[in-house]
Amino acid sequence: MFYTNTCSPVKPGSGHGQPDHAPVGRGEQLGNERDPDAVDLGEHVPGDEPRALLARQASTLPRMSAVFLVLSAFLASAVEMVEALTIVLAAGLTRGWRSSLTGLAAAVIVLAAIVAALGPALTVVPLDALRLVVGALLLLFGLQWLRKAILRASGRKALHDEDAIFARELAEARVAEHIERAGIDWYGFTLSFKGVLLEGLEVAFIVLTFGSTQGSIPLAAAGAAGAVLLVAGVGVAVRAPLARVPENTMKFAVGLMLTTFGIFWSAEGAGAHWPGSDAALPGVLAFVCVVSALLVLALRTPRMETA
Amino acid sequence: MRFLRFWWEFVVGDDMLAAACVIAAIAATAGLAALGVAAWWLLPLAVPLVLYVSLRRAT
């Protein structure tokens, strides 16, 4: 349902650069009720281009964007869930599974409430404004990920090590005071709850921003849910931190994706028009990949000389 | 206050200069676009520079 192609006869200059993939629902909501045929006829209705175009393109989400959307949500969620799993395991093994799993469930409920509350709210924001704000946020957020990933890849920052984090969490949890409330160890509950909530907030942020801007929160949520189920399934099976997951590589990939989407959407939201519209997205991604690789090499060189 | 600090660190992180430069680049893009000048190239140019400066400051 997200891949139907609706090519509208938009004349040049009348809303060009507007998204080809307006969300289902958003377009209907923003639809131009006064003159629904204006865009079909290629007529220019000042001030109504985005609304009319969105109405025409309500069911469109290009396949490429959908793939990026699901992949980004999946990768980001997988990385965060691997980290959350380490904390839940540490809490469960040291403070009892009941407390740890109760904390996990409480955090999941809070995260679901946040997504359920903010998701519909974001759909009423005009798409250009949403893309500007979300694009800027993603760019700021993505640059943080990318900067850390480049520092790790170049050897300037210690690699993320789930085994070491797990050992540290275990040591701290073992010596913490035991306070029981309603049959639940408070430390174990809090450790699990905070761990899952904080890691999950990043996932919720990515799902909401990617999903709302691309017009499909359910599709982004599906990517995230797939990662959660996969990580949870493997975690239950092995009952150990997923140290073999190429977490640092995945974090690099997420940083690249977030930065790419941030550049693309914030430019569109600011009123710029990409050559080739959505087809420019892989080009931006390739550019960000090349720049990042060069920066890794540039930062590696001095260290190799001193070694 | 802790709530605001959490969101500030969540979004902006530890390099406020980089965040300010990104916002300035987006504003410049909007300014160029408003003048009718093609502005899509500005962010792909600015982001690597911001990233480079931010990495240099971090190392």
Characterise the protein shown here.
The complex is a heterodimer of chains A (307) and B (59). Chain A is mostly helical and 307 residues long. Chain A folds into two domains: 1-61, no CATH class; 63-306, no CATH class. Chain A is 69% helix and 1% strand. Chain A contains ten helices and two strands; from the N terminus they run H-H-H-H-H-H-E-E-H-H-H-H. A two-stranded antiparallel sheet of chain A has the order 1-2. The model of chain B has no long low-confidence stretch (mean pLDDT 88). In chain B, helix 2 packs antiparallel against helix 3. Chain B has one domain (2-58). The termini of chain B are far apart. Chain B contains three helices and no strands. By secondary structure, chain B is mainly alpha-helical. Chain B has helices at 2-11, 16-34, 42-58. Chain B is flat and about 40 Å long. Chain A binds chain B through residues 132, 135-137, 139-141, 143-144, 146-147, 150-151, 156, 201-202, 205, 259, 263, 266-267, 270-275, 280, 284, 287-288, 291-292, 295, 299, and chain B through 10-13, 15, 18-19, 22-23, 26-27, 29-30, 32-34, 38-40, 42-44, 47-48, 50-52, 54-55, 58-59.
List the helices and strands and how they pair.
The complex is a heterodimer of chains A (307) and B (59).
Chain A: H1 26-29, H2 49-56, H3 63-95, H4 97-122, H5 127-153, H6 162-175, E1 180-181, E2 184-185, H7 186-214, H8 217-238, H9 247-269, H10 280-306
Antiparallel strand pairs in A: 1-2
Chain B: H1 2-11, H2 16-34, H3 42-58
